[in-house]
Amino acid sequence: MNAVLRAEKLNFCHGKDFILIDDYKKNIAEWKEAGGTAILFNSWQDTLTVIEELENQNTSS
């Protein structure tokens, strides 16, 4: 896990296997445009649910 300045976030996006969890919609959109997977943070429970769904997709593929 990395905590970085907004301007540096896209430096960490190297494809769909790189996940950004963020509460700022602009960061989410930019990350997805760069080819990464992004989760809009609303609550920890919602975020954990999305992560579990991603894990299930990866194990069933």
Short description:
The protein has two helices and two strands, in the order βαβα.
Overview of the molecule:
The chain is an alpha+beta fold and 61 residues long. The protein has one domain. It contains 2 helices and 2 strands; from the N terminus they run βαβα. It has helices at residues 25-33, 44-60; strands at residues 19-22, 37-40. The termini are far apart.
Largest sheet: 2 strands, parallel
Rg for CA atoms: 12 Å
The helical percent reads: 40-55%
Q: Stretches where pLDDT falls below 50 for ≥5 residues? A: none
Q: In total, how many domains does the architecture comprise? A: 1
SSE blueprint:
Blueprint: E1 19-22, H1 25-33, E2 37-40, H2 44-60
Key terms:
61 residues; alpha+beta; two-stranded parallel sheet; 2 helices; 2 strands; 43% helix
